[in-house]
Amino acid sequence: MHLSTHNWMRAEPLETTLKRIKKFGYESIEISGEPAQYKTKETRALLKEHGIRCWGAVTLMLGERNLAARDQGQRERSVQYVKDVLTMVGELDGEIITLVPATVGKVVPDGTEEEEWKWVVDATRECFTHAKKVGVKIAVEPLNRFETYLFNRGAQALALADAVSPECGVCLDAYHIHMEEFNVHDAIRQVGKRLFDFHVADNNRFAAGLGQIDWPRIVATLKEVGYDGALTNEFVAPVDRTPAAPYPDMVERHPVDISPEQLKFIQDHGSSVLTEKFYTDQMRITAETLLPLIK
Fold first, then answer.
1. 3-class SS of residue 173
2. Choosing a second label site near 138 at 20 to 30 A (CA), which of 14, 151, 195, 230?
3. Are 221 and 189 in contact (CB under 8 A)?
4. Rounded to whole angstroms, how far apart are CA atoms 37 and 40?
5. Where is the Xylose isomerase-like TIM barrel domain (predicted)?
6. How far, in Å, CA of 259 to CA of 28, rounded?
7. Which fold has domain 1-291?
8. What angle do CA 23, 29, 31 make, to 5 degrees?
9. Distance, CA of 90 to CA of 18 (rounded, Å)
10. 3-class secondary structure, 196
11. pTM of the full predicted structure?
12. What 3-state class would DSSP assign to 292?
């Protein structure tokens, strides 16, 4: 196993992210799933310069992106978006994409169970065909019930992966599984060899080590099933706007170059634009919590 991180949680130049994570012992990055933001030739050079490899990318299912949408045109555009993410990861020599099938924040279905299952399976199969062409694996990620109604548990994600191909896998997220699974360790065991990625944040969605998750036991269970991929940092620190705030200086008060869509996506996760000092500290805490367990 090795330590990786997402970078969608804070709007900043990629070079800033890479310098920071290299210092703390991260080996790779699961880059934000926005292909328009990255020129792959320049990004490859930047990764090489800082000694960080691309582990993969996560699909940012915001706006109209939804593989389970009733509207066929919307599904087709969503499939093309996922294909573009796959192509970007392939060009960056990455290994996986984390696929969230439906729009994050959408909690009302578009159709019957049978209709939606057909829509999402057909769409994911088309994405998988492209994934094979570009040499990238797909890992279906379930989220908690407050972010999506469709895939909340590992067994559900595995059912979609099974419907697509034996070579399609699953990504589990420690934060989500501690909300949704009957037993988080049994959920990891059930996915087993089909576990392609594992995201990490504590039960309060701060950095690993700042909540109640038993990280030594989680890592031990991952080792038990033979998982040898990334532990991908994905804290999304909740903002406290009251006098009881434990981190009163966590929110950036100065103007930041961030798109309205990305800002809304972060705010919909209960977070905000974070200061560099706070964000750096969360990266450090994650590394100090997890690296001793995997080395």
1. strand
2. 14
3. yes
4. 9
5. 19-242
6. 25
7. TIM Barrel (3.20.20)
8. 135
9. 19
10. strand
11. 0.96
12. helix
Could you tell me the CA-to-CA distances from 82 to 19, 31, 187, 268 in Å, in that order? 28, 14, 26, 21
The amino acid occupying position 17 is: T
Please tell me the distance from the alpha carbon of residue 173 to that of residue 90, in angstroms, as a whole number. 23
Q: Are 136 and 170 in contact (CB under 8 A)?
A: no
- Three-state SS string over 51-92 comes to CCEEEEEEECCCCCCCCCCCCHHHHHHHHHHHHHHHHHHHHC
Which residues are CB-neighbours of 68 under 8 A, at least 6 positions away?
75, 101, 102, 110, 116, 119, 120, 123, 150
- Whether 289 and 238 have beta carbons less than 8 Å apart is answered as no
Q: Count of CB atoms within 10 A of residue 182's CB?
A: 8
The single residue listed with the structure tokens 């209960």 is 270
Q: Is 135 left (phi over 0), alpha (psi -120 to 50) or beta?
A: left
Cα 149 to chain centroid, rounded: 17
Distance CA 107, CA 143 (A): 11
Domain ranges of the chain: 1-291
- Please list the pLDDT of the chain residue by residue as tens digits (295 residues): 999 999 999 989 999 999 999 999 999 999 999 999 999 999 999 999 999 999 999 999 999 999 999 999 999 999 999 999 999 999 999 999 999 999 999 999 999 999 999 999 999 999 999 999 999 999 999 999 999 999 999 999 999 999 999 999 999 999 999 999 999 999 999 999 999 999 999 999 999 999 999 999 999 999 999 999 999 999 999 999 899 999 999 999 886 788 888 888 888 888 998 999 999 999 999 999 999 999 8
**Sequence-separated (6 or more) residues with CB below 8 Å from residue 76:** none
Q: Map residue 3 onto helix, strand or coil.
A: strand
Tokens matching residue 96? 């996986």
